[in-house]
């Protein structure tokens, strides 16, 4: 879907976003505002400093309703107040290494947060379309060379983060089968996205934020696992997919610009969301692309860790279903994704107007 089609569907819609103040959530919230949606956010305060949500000046433009997805009553109250038509579930503990430090909190947030939201939506009369955003790490990964995971494969992530997202998928599948199977029921999908990069991510233990921090502080980029392969994509790629899935499963028809609910059921499914397989590159290759895009004084070096927690060394996605069902093709290949990411961080480093810069980057991508 392009900008005009998205605006035709989302204009005036009531949209509820959990995790709206996080990295992905901030980008999604700004896109929804550009499309004319009425955005309701439910999230804990941002944990990073700087914080993308604040840099974009989104506070005050989004109706903030809380809160912690582990708090069922607060979530119930927020959904009742918002009366949303569309729900994007992004709230999560999203860092693999943090999940080793805080496994119980990770499961509480990623599993029970999903249970709580679906239980609230079970009694909502307004909700029409729900998307649960998970991860490409939900699969049982035996790290077979050249293997690309398809949606039918076994879900069993290794570390607490990945495994909790596998559980979130299974919870969603169960609720969908048990409570949302009727013709007029809430349409439900999950999106298993590959590794995202893009401006405004300041989380710790992620490769691009680490590249930025080391470079602006005048030291070589320290790459822990230069040979780990990941499906890297710009954050706008999966966000466009999320917006498209939510619209299509409610029955939006691009040709007519109308919504026919009966046409939407076939789009409610489980989707891998990743780049072309050629864009699944090593962390070292990504660091090299960053260095070339940033220029002097950026450089990188391999810094393996002793006793590092387990992280998969090889991961690719098969996105055939997404391509065929939604006629989707990625717009920015990995080199372009890194270039656009570096442009954003340079704008931040130079003190430019990030709201305007980010809006222009979004419109450039969507158009």
Q: How would you describe what is shown here?
A:
This protein has 367 residues and is an alpha/beta fold. The protein has a single domain (3-194, 233-278, 310-334), classed as NAD(P)-binding Rossmann-like Domain (Rossmann fold), CATH 3.40.50.720. Helices cover 41% and strands 14% of the residues. The chain has a seven-stranded parallel sheet with strand order 3-2-1-4-5-6-13, with helices on both faces. A two-stranded parallel ribbon has the order 7-10. A hairpin with a 4-residue loop joins strand 11 and strand 12 (258-259). The mean pLDDT is 95.
Q: Can you tell me the CATH topology?
A: Rossmann fold
Top-tier CATH class: Alpha Beta
Q: Specify the structural class.
A: alpha/beta
Broad shape = globular
Mean pLDDT: 95
| Reported CATH architecture | 3-Layer(aba) Sandwich
Ends apart, CA distance between termini: 10 Å
Side by side, the strands of the main sheet go 3-2-1-4-5-6-13
- Percent strand equals 5-15%
């Amino acid at each position: 879907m392009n900008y005009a089609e998205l605006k035709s569907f989302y204009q005036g819609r009531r949209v509820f976003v959990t995790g709206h103040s996080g990295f992905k959530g901030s980008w999604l919230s700004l896109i929804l505002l550009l499309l004319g949606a009425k955005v309701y956010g439910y999230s804990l305060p941002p944990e990073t400093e700087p914080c993308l949500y604040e840099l974009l000046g989104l506070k005050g433009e989004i109706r903030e309703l809380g809160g912690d997805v582990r708090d069922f009553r607060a979530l119930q109250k927020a959904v009742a107040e918002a009366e949303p038509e569309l729900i994007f579930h992004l709230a999560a503990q999203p860092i693999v290494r943090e999940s080793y430090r805080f496994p119980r909190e990770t499961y509480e947030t990623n599993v029970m947060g999903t249970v709580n939201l679906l239980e609230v939506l079970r009694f909502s009369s307004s909700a029409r379309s729900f998307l649960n955003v998970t991860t490409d790490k939900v699969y049982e990964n035996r790290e077979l060379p050249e293997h690309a995971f398809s949606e039918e494969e076994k879900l069993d992530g290794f570390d607490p983060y990945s495994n909790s997202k596998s559980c979130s998928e299974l919870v969603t599948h169960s609720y969908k089968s048990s409570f949302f199977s009727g013709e007029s029921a809430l349409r439900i999908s999950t999106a298993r996205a590959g590794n995202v990069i893009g401006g405004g991510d300041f989380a710790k233990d992620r490769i691009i934020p680490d590249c930025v921090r080391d470079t602006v502080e005048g030291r070589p980029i320290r790459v822990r696992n230069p040979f780990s392969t990941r499906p890297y994509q710009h954050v706008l790629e999966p966000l466009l997919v999320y917006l498209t899935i939510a619209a299509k499963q409610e029955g939006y028809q691009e040709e007519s610009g109308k919504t026919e609910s009966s046409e939407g059921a076939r789009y409610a499914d489980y989707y891998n969301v990743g780049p072309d397989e050629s864009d699944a590159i090593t962390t070292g290759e990504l660091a090299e692309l960053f260095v070339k895009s940033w220029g002097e004084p950026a450089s990188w070096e391999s810094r393996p860790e002793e006793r590092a927690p387990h992280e998969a060394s090889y991961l690719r996605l098969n996105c055939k279903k997404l391509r065929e069902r939604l006629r989707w093709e990625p717009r920015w290949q990995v080199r372009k994704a890194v270039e656009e990411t570096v442009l954003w961080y340079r704008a931040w480093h130079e003190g430019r107007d990030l709201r305007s810069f980010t809006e222009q980057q979004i419109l450039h991508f969507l158009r």
